[in-house]
Amino acid sequence: MLAKRIIPCLDIKDGRTVKGVNFVNLRDAGDPVELGALYSEQGADELVFLDITATHEKRKTMSALARNIARHLHIPFTIGGGINEVADADLLLACGADKVSVNSAAVRQPALIDAMAKAFGSQFVVLAVDAKAVGQEWLVHLNGGRIPTDIRLLDWVKEAQERGAGEILFTSMDHDGVKQGFACDMTARVSESLSIPVIASGGAGTMAHFYDVFTTGKADAALAATIFHFREIGIRELKDYLKDRAIVVR
Question: What's the pTM value of the predicted model, to 2 decimals?
Fold first, then answer.
């Protein structure tokens, strides 16, 4: 069995780590490089850095930060936000990122996934998906959750896999920052529909929530922000908790 991964997420705005609830009401959480180094020391398996306003503000993502992160960290990291073409991803990988994440641009231009997978290999391409339940359907949202679409979540992740995405980062917008648990049922449906790894995001509040998303939710990795940034749960303690419950972690 592959080990389950614990992944702190650092949402970046104006060069600082921020965190909110349901994608709004952001508060400062610290310097992203310092936080990333701390999580690396604590035993995080990977890190995700997302420039959360790059697409909305029509900016390119943060190559300078990628270089700085690469100089100070020794665990894999993914970076995303504002990636609209292969050249953007190429720059970030050249700056030291291990993987790149695409979200809104891939929805608007699905062939971007094909092009990135062809250029770098699927293992470098993470498709991030922000979605929420609207009536009976889970629908994809763009620009940091600001713009709803009529694209169904399961249809989109299947297409992304076919186009060459190597991993799916699924964030439940309604669960984001609420700390009441992951969207385990929908995460399981996403996982069962794909053959590539799924990272669950949105809702972590207790150690038990991680156990739930790895068992009921069938996730390959779990991503969280608030509980790590504000020292509510330690990564080593979390891994010990999971090991004690027969969850394979690194």
Answer: 0.91
